[in-house]
Amino acid sequence: MTRPHLIAFIGLTWATIMFGGCASLATTHASDPRAPMTAQGSGYGVVAAGSVPADGRSVPNPLLTPALSALAALLGAGVGYWSTQRSSRAGIIQKTNELEIESIDRRLSEFVGPFMQLSEENKTLAAELKRGQTVSDFRTLTALLTPGWRAGLSSGDASLLSVVVDNGVALRKLLMENGAAAVSPQLIPYFSKASTHFRFLELAYKGSLDENPARFGDYVYPRELDGIMALELVRLQTRRELLRSAPYRPHGAMQDLDLSDNLAKP
After folding, report:
1. Whole-prediction pTM value?
2. CB 266 within 8 A of CB 192
3. Each residue of 196-207: pLDDT tens digit?
């Protein structure tokens, strides 16, 4: 039984008990000779409260039982209405939270998770490619645009480069198809820069750009995006756990990602 149904059940049960209790009280007063009653008919139609006819029997007030029954019905209707309203509101809140949980699950499974996994793989491959280079601040894009660099690669490093470029194409596709709708708006400028980098990397690999590393130096991969994506992952997971821990409580809108000042701007 869900919480909304439980609330409604309690309310109706309470109303039933109240009705039964009031009806029982009315019957008891009507049948108990010791129970003082309201004015009874006698003489001119009035007998003092608690008076007893000649035969010793207490005369029940014919208005008492209907009055108590009506009161019980009124209380029951009020409790029933309150229970229904509370149950309906709790049901709406629960459904809203469930839909948000589903939305977060989709963001994590369709974009955040795949992007972080593939990006980490690409970073590892690029680091391995860098090991055979003499430049301390090696960047794949500018290296590709350096005359003669690609021709000097070993067959193994050439294979690594090919995979890095292919992964870049896949990462750009993820960004274009799911990125904007899956994360906090603060990440969009970083996504734009990363997407531009992957496009230039693909074009450079195909030989479609001029061999001028200085010209394209501003379009290397934004390394700060890795740390920002980790923060976004925590933000989404924390929100999901909050919704799961209190499914019947309204939580307001999810806060946007709070980027710390030490992260480089896009």
Report:
1. 0.67
2. yes
3. 999 999 999 999
